[in-house]
Amino acid sequence: MSRICIVGASGKLGQYMIAHALAKGYQIHAVCRAKSVGKLARFKGQISIYPGDTDDRAVIQRAVQGCDAVLTVLVPWGVSQYATRTAQAVLDFAAPQARLIFSCGWHISKDGKDHYTWQLKTFVAIFGFVARLFRIADLADQVRACDTIFSSERRWTVVRGSDLEEGPSQGLPIWREHVGDPALASNLTRRTDFALFMVAAIDNPALIHQAPAIVGAGEVV
Ligand SMILES: NC(=O)c1ccc[n+]([C@@H]2O[C@H](COP(=O)([O-])OP(=O)(O)OC[C@H]3O[C@@H](n4cnc5c(N)ncnc54)[C@H](OP(=O)(O)O)[C@@H]3O)[C@@H](O)[C@H]2O)c1
Predict the structure, then answer these.
(1) What is the pTM of this model?
(2) Taking every annotated instance into account, which residue ranges of this chain make up the domain NAD(P)-binding (predicted)?
(3) How far does residue 93's CA lie from ligand 1's centre (Å)?
(4) How do residues 35-50 score in pLDDT, each as one tens digit?
(5) Ligand 1: nearest atom to the Cα of 33
(6) Could you report the per-residue pLDDT of 144-173, keeping only the tens digit for each?
């Protein structure tokens, strides 16, 4: 049985990833903020929890030890480089051959070839400005984190999520290299399926050094 680490495990995406990874028989090391450990109560006895901020290098170093893959929820909260520091710790301490899967949103671009709607550009500009003004979040931090990952030689994948919704699984999302591809027009993914894609990426070598933009597979009729 293979062992993986989930960084940012107590959030919505993280908990879905735990459920999918358990179903696939993985042993799980879960990193989450100490105050959020209670959110993982339903997984008691099934996972090993490493309490701590995800940018705490000592916590990450312990948690990723012996793991074949590390799934990281990258979030730009605060104005202290939380995402960049988290990504750097994972890149520095994960085993050399480990698969490293990171989450982010469509607004991240690997090669500048994505085509964004004016609505998305406006949302990112306004949210980014207001969040930074009130020191809630720093979108540029998530951009820097991803740039650090993109320039790494590690076996990474950066999964770029569309708008998200709750609801039962519709199966593995589809993906394209660039936002703006007509196949991604729905701009909607079930959160559980975002998690499904993150876990499935562990065993998909075609996704190494890719930044897939995903959307849900849609209703099965
Ligand atoms: N929300 C969307 O519409 C959307 C769209 C596209 C892509 N994404 C991507 O999907 C991923 C998950 O996003 P989500 O919105 O669904 O959130 P989420 O899964 O609920 O995860 C939020 C994470 O952020 C942590 N967090 C919250 N406040 C924090 C703080 N002040 N300092 C440090 N960590 C904090 C949470 O930890 P605690 O449990 O400890 O609070 C949790 O691990 C992210 O990578 C995001 O970029 C989201």
Answers:
(1) 0.97
(2) 8-205
(3) 22
(4) 999 999 999 999 999 9
(5) 40
(6) 999 999 999 999 999 999 999 999 999 999
User: What is the Cα Rg of the chain in Å?
Assistant: 16
**Tokens 């309490």 found at:** 51
* DSSP structure class, residue 207: G
Of 138, 179, 141, 139, the residue nearest 160 (C-alpha): 179
Inter-residue contact 109 to 121 (CB < 8 Å): no
174-176 and 163-165 beta bridge pairing: unpaired
> CB under 6 Å to ligand 1: residues?
8, 10-14, 32-33, 36, 39, 73-75, 77-78, 82, 103-105, 161, 163-164, 191
Within a domain: 14? yes
Give me the number of domains the chain comprises.
1
With respect to residue 221, please indicate whether it lies within any of the assigned structural domains. no
Q: How many CA atoms lie within 13 A of 6 on its CB side?
A: 27
Q: Collapsing DSSP states into helix, strand and coil, what is residue 27? A: strand
| Residue 21 within any structural domain of the chain | yes
Q: Do the domain assignments include residue 35? A: yes
User: Domain holding 52: CATH number?
Assistant: 3.40.50.720
